[in-house]
Amino acid sequence: MKKLMENRGTTIALLFVITALAIYLLGLAFDGVRGDLTDDNLYSLTPGTQAILEKMQQEGVQPIEISLYFSETAGKTLPKFIKDFITYERYLESLLKEYERASAGKIRLKFIDPIPDSDEAQDAQDFGLDGKPINQQGDLFFFGLVIQTQTGSKDVIDFLWPEQQE
To answer: What pLDDT digit, counting tens, does each position of 10-26 carry?
Structure first.
């Protein structure tokens, strides 16, 4: 009986090791496999976007830098106000990362939390982002996008409103 219990323990341990190894190997096999399981394919690139990214690669376009400014730290003082903005920011961050991944190095991302009275907050203002006052001290809440090329041109979306998302 004692020998049977030892064999059972060994068998269970061996099954555990085999299962863990199988899971690990499956993880390696499917590394990088991506899928969008949302109903509206929210995180999938449209054929038009894919065509633009391919054209950027074919024509040797210099990389562009996309900077998403989002005052997450300052916004934490505004729990009711910030909830929709955080949800929208997370969506944009995921989508932009998908653009970056699909661009083969033609898109570079920066995610910036412009804390009040910081160099980043000053940069946001210098780029023309529209900071919204959030307190009596005049601290500003930023949520905007700056797109820059290596040739010096830039486009700015001065403020991103969640209700205007499409």
So the answer is: 777 777 778 777 677 76
